[in-house]
Amino acid sequence: MAQVEIWHRPTCSNSRGALELIREAGIEPVIVDYIRHPPSQAQLRKAIADAGLTVREAMRNKEPEYAEQGLGNPVLSDDALLDAMVATPKLINRPFVFTGKGVRLCRPPEMVLDLL
């Protein structure tokens, strides 16, 4: 199988669950701590598009920073939202998993099984 990568946040139960399912399948993925090493805007845009999501669908709207930065404003462009997500990576929904079969936001974690 091609390399598997997960944008992981250890404090997130969905992220931990997806990682566990990947490992149960006998795969040790590349684990990217996207909080410490956020993707570029271009990488994030591609991941979101490849997962078939809108930028808003890939954003965590329950984080305090979402309201503090006024990100619920419907006139904000995708570029503005992506810039906010790169600057404040905890706004990126998780976990994104990348395999040879595609990219998916694995919420719930069992969504990763289709990629393995």
From TrEMBL:
Q: Is Oxidoreductase included in the keywords of this UniProt record?
A: yes
Q: What class of enzyme is it?
A: oxidoreductase
Keyword 4Fe-4S in record: no
**SUPFAM superfamilies reported for this sequence:** Thioredoxin-like
Q: Which reaction does it catalyse?
A: [glutaredoxin]-dithiol + arsenate + glutathione + H(+) = glutathionyl-S-S-[glutaredoxin] + arsenite + H2O
Q: Which InterPro entries match?
A: Arsenate_reductase, Arsenate_reductase-like, Thioredoxin-like_sf
Cite the EC number.
1.20.4.1
Write the protein's name: Arsenate reductase
Homology family: Belongs to the ArsC family.
Q: Which CDD domains match?
A: ArsC_ArsC
Keywords, A to Z, come to: Arsenical resistance, Oxidoreductase
Q: Name one GO molecular function term.
A: arsenate reductase (glutaredoxin) activity
Q: By its UniProt entry, which PANTHER family does this protein fall under? A: ARSENATE REDUCTASE (PTHR30041), ARSENATE REDUCTASE-RELATED (PTHR30041:SF5)
